[in-house]
Amino acid sequence: MTSGGARRDVRGAMAAAAAAAEPWQAAGPRRKRRPAARCRRAREPAAGSLEAEPETDSRVVLRRIREAEEDLLLSDFWSLALEHLEQLKTPRGTLSKALGNLHLDPSPEASDAAPGSLPGEPLVPGTCHLKCVCYGLGNFATCVIARNQLAFLLLFLEKCQIPRRHCCVYDPLFSQLEIAVLDGLGVTVLRENEEGRRSVGGEPTVFYMPHCGAALYNNLLWGNWSADALSKLLVVGNSFRGLEERLLARVLQKNYPYIAKVLQGLEERGLPQTPRYTDVFNDTSVHWFPARKLQQLPADTWAFREEPDYRDCEDLEIIRSRTRGPPAAGLPAP
Question: Which CATH number fits domain 54-105+117-304: 3.40.50, 1.10.287, 2.40.128, 2.60.40?
């Protein structure tokens, strides 16, 4: 090899090392960021690792969740997010009457309760009739993004005075360790993959679905496809307007018809963006469906009730269930 070739090889190696050390940056600004990729399940641990000792590792995971709650509680993002939620209860009534049970005013007992404290009962017993369903958290034991999203859910339940036992949680990626941690936190862990097809059963319900695939939101809408049921939903998840912007109209209408049909009947407010939690809550909005807007949709909107079929859908971001049954309704029997 010539000396010139050797110098080029050295310069190339130095450039590669420098590139690896520097964080990647986009070439220019984007109009809207796509939601961050969900955390995937880590590889199976080797014998003798922390996960091989469930009791010890559960304590570690719980400690990290509490730390995430404490950090989030003190952040600008949390205070700004609460302002956004409180604005949903303006005198104009933009939040449907069915969701008027949201308790967002601070309670005298709130300052005395440690974040994430058990058993997660409402601060004022008997005042809350909301349910909550959470899909798509991912592996919070190993992923910081997922852990911060779980911390938000726990603080949200506490702020809205929703008992943790009234919150159903599911992700097909959950490990046995994570299921044990969630059981310990007092939430209800679903054991079957509903693919998002859960009916509210006439009860006001918050669906917390951070960074889920579009098919999951589409399935949720199909499972509640009536003006009465949709008016009882509040969905915290990927921006439906963002999906409309990113997808071709024909693709949205063919693959996700229920999202396409409901766009004229929803209200949407994006969660605030702060540097620290950009990758955790980017492209995340609060969606609700006022009865007055749903009633203004064409009558044939509700006649379309075909079950979603994703056989020809590319890049389907959903883990399918091995067994398919009717849409689930309400909470499972104790």
Answer: 3.40.50
Q: What is the pLDDT along the chain (334 residues), one digit of tens a residue?
A: 444 444 444 444 444 444 443 333 333 333 444 555 556 433 333 333 344 444 458 999 999 999 999 999 999 999 999 887 877 754 443 333 434 544 333 333 333 333 333 333 333 344 457 899 999 999 999 999 999 999 999 999 998 889 999 999 999 999 999 999 999 999 999 999 998 999 988 889 999 999 999 999 999 999 999 999 999 999 999 999 999 999 999 999 999 999 999 999 999 999 999 999 999 999 999 999 999 999 999 989 999 899 988 887 777 766 666 555 445 555 443 3
For residue 238, which of 160, 330, 317, 309 has the smallest C-alpha distance? 317
Residue spans per domain, the chain: 54-105+117-304
- Which of helix, strand or coil describes residue 225? coil
Number of CB atoms found within 10 A of residue 255's CB: 21
